[in-house]
Amino acid sequence: MSSPLLDVWEAAAASPYRPSIGKGSQFTVGFVLLLLSLFLAGIFGLNRSFANLSVLGIPASLAFGFGAVYMICAVGVYV
After folding, report:
1. pLDDT digits 0-9 by tens, 22-60
2. Its pTM surpasses 0.85
3. 35 domain-assigned
């Protein structure tokens, strides 16, 4: 008797997971994203308006979020 979960497990063994950003470049990507977020947040802080919220504020917060996760993973703290 074959189990569907066992079939999925065996099919996945033939194709291992390959991340889009490798372990060796996570520090660089995280550092660049954090630097970009600092720059964008600084510009947004100097010139706050509703129009700049979508142009500077949201990309700054996204860059900070992803940059923080990449930096945490790059230094070996897994979340």
Report:
1. 889 999 999 999 999 999 999 999 988 888 888 999 999
2. no
3. yes
- Please indicate, yes or no, if residue 8 is contained in any of the structural domains: no
**Alpha helices, DSSP H only, in 1-79?**
4-13, 26-46, 50-52, 58-74
Tell me the residue range of the domain where 50 lies.
21-74
CB contact at 8 A, 61 and 20:
no
Tell me, yes or no, whether 45 lies in a domain: yes
65 falls in which pLDDT band (50, 70, 90)? Answer: very high
- Find the largest Cα–Cα distance for the chain: 67
Other C-beta atoms within 10 Å of 63: how many? 20
Distance CA 63, CA 65 (A): 6
User: Domains in the chain: how many in total?
Assistant: 1
